[in-house]
Amino acid sequence: MRLLNINTFQLETYNDEQLIPIYAILSHTWGEEEVLFKDIHNDPIKEEFQQLQRFCNEARNFGVSHVWIDTCCINKESSSELSEALNSMFSWYRNARLCIAYLSDVFTVNQSIDHSRWFTRGWTLQELIVPTEIWFYTREWKFIGIRSTLADQIMQLTGVNKRVLEKDGAKTLPDFSVAIRLSWAASRKTTRPEDRAYSLMGLFGVNIPTIYGEGIEAAFFRLQMEIYKTVPDHSILAWGDVIYSSWEKDHLKPEIRE
């Protein structure tokens, strides 16, 4: 795992889980010019660097010295590192001291979060559910609220059961069938089609190799097979005749929504 030291602004690699320091983790949607792994040592002239520093400052207020951000803590030019990171995402978000969700399209604390892009993306479903708690912030880094107190509103926005949204609610995931958990991803979008399958691995405690270019149907089939082998719940079988390459259509059967 690679973390950013907020005091030195240097990336540090930890191969031993026992040595990983307490860290904060960021959940956000990608913009046009993010600070990437290769950019982290460049002069901080981009607005994105300033936003990264704002995140570090906020994390410092919670008493942590390190942070994790997907854009700059993963070398996406390495396919093996990317695959390992995507398969580790669940545990990284789960083990963070805190998770901050940055809603870049919410400008004030009085603005409704109902139309924020953050609630529509594939990877942020896992990031919504997995952390013990989430702190939501506006574009200007004003505090909006925490997940547990916003649970009713978030449930209406996402369909995710309120019990899962309460503090440490991820422990209740096994109480919900595979089909119901899949239904939470019904309308979510990803930039790369395969990520619609890959982003769900953590919700079922499974791991599959990431093979970009295989297409959503192949990726989802492999995910289905791994879930079937791992999770003692055969509601996944109800999905065998669904064409997942047309994910945007209403491929999730309405009778399993909850």
From TrEMBL:
Span of domain DUF8212: 219-246
Domain of life: Eukaryota
All copies of domain Heterokaryon incompatibility, residue ranges: 23-105
Protein name per UniProt: HET-domain-containing protein
